[in-house]
């Protein structure tokens, strides 16, 4: 076998290309879930919509519900990076005023496809399998937020304070995104979504949620 080539004789896929394929599969899965429901969607349909085989779908994801993870995790990773960069002493609510990551140009509040993410979060309300993926993603994100907040404050990783702050930030983030998706974004399903308006409304919901979290229980 030629060095640097896989079993098919083609060069192996780069990590960047693998990430692109995962995202293409995720967008295809969400589109099908929205139009026909999760139960009626098959791996073969997802693969066909993404331009890959069903075998490729299952190579990257263990279940059809898990196909949506790339659309959910992208925004979490961007927010964790924003937390690490945000200067200590300034309110975290202001960090969400960025429309784009100044280092990469990626949108902080929309993810790789804001419309798909909103539709996906709305589906988590009625689809238990997707709800489980959504909650698990937030559970996995909390340690990343804790590390980012510890780095920001110059605290050791095992300090309790950033762990508690991360839990509050995570809960506020999930509540704000769900509120935006279930109420604001779904107020007029027949109206075309304006990405700039949707981002502004989501940013407002996130700032409000973080303000409530910062105020504590009273």
Task: Describe the protein.
- By secondary structure, the chain is mostly helical.
- It folds into 2 domains: 15-66, Arc Repressor Mutant, subunit A (Orthogonal Bundle); 68-215, Tetracycline Repressor, domain 2, CATH 1.10.357.10.
- The protein is 64% helix and 0% strand.
- It contains 9 helices and no strands.
- The longest helix is centred in the middle third of the chain and has 26 residues, at 128-153.
- It starts with 14 loop residues before the first helix and ends with a helix.
- Residues 19-79 form the HTH tetR-type domain.
- One of its GO terms (molecular function) is DNA-binding transcription factor activity.
- Residues 42-61 bind DNA.
Rg, please?
Answer: 19 Å
The gross shape turns out to be globular
Number of domains: 2
The CATH topology of the largest domain is given as Tetracycline Repressor, domain 2
Given this structure, which CATH class of the largest domain is correct?
Answer: Mainly Alpha
- Taking pLDDT < 50 over at least 5 consecutive residues as the criterion, the unreliable ranges are 102-106, 186-192
Multimer state: single chain
| Beta strand count | 0
| Overall pLDDT metric | 81
Label the CATH architecture of the largest domain: Orthogonal Bundle
The total count of helices amounts to 9
CA distance, first residue to last residue? 67 Å
Question: Helix proportion of residues, in percent?
Answer: 55-70%
The CATH homologous superfamily of the largest domain: Tetracycline Repressor, domain 2
**Structural class of the helix and strand makeup?**
mainly alpha
Give the SSE string. Answer: HHHHHHHHH
Domain HTH tetR-type: 19-79
GO molecular function, one term: transcription cis-regulatory region binding
DNA-binding region: 42-61
Keywords: DNA-binding, Transcription, Transcription regulation
């Amino acid at each position: 076998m030629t060095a640097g080539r896989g079993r098919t004789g083609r060069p192996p896929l780069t990590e960047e290309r693998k990430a692109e394929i995962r995202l293409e599969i995720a967008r295809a899965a969400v589109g099908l879930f929205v139009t026909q429901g999760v139960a009626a969607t098959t791996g073969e349909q997802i693969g066909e919509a993404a331009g890959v085989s069903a075998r490729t779908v299952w190579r990257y994801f263990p279940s059809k519900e898990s196909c949506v993870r790339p659309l959910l995790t992208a925004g979490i990773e961007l927010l964790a990076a924003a937390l690490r960069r945000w200067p200590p002493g300034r309110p975290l609510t202001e960090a969400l005023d960025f429309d784009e990551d100044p280092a990469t140009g990626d949108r902080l509040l929309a993810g790789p496809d804001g419309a798909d993410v909103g539709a996906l979060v709305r589906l988590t309300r009625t689809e238990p399998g997707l709800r489980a993926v959504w909650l698990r993603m937030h559970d996995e994100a909390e340690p990343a937020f804790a590390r980012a907040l510890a780095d920001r404050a110059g605290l050791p990783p095992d300090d309790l304070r950033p762990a508690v702050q991360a839990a509050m930030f995570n809960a506020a983030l999930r509540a704000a995104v769900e509120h935006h998706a279930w109420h604001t974004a779904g107020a007029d399903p027949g109206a075309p979504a304006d990405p700039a308006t949707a981002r502004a409304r989501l940013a407002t919901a996130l700032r409000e949620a973080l303000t409530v979290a910062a105020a504590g229980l009273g």
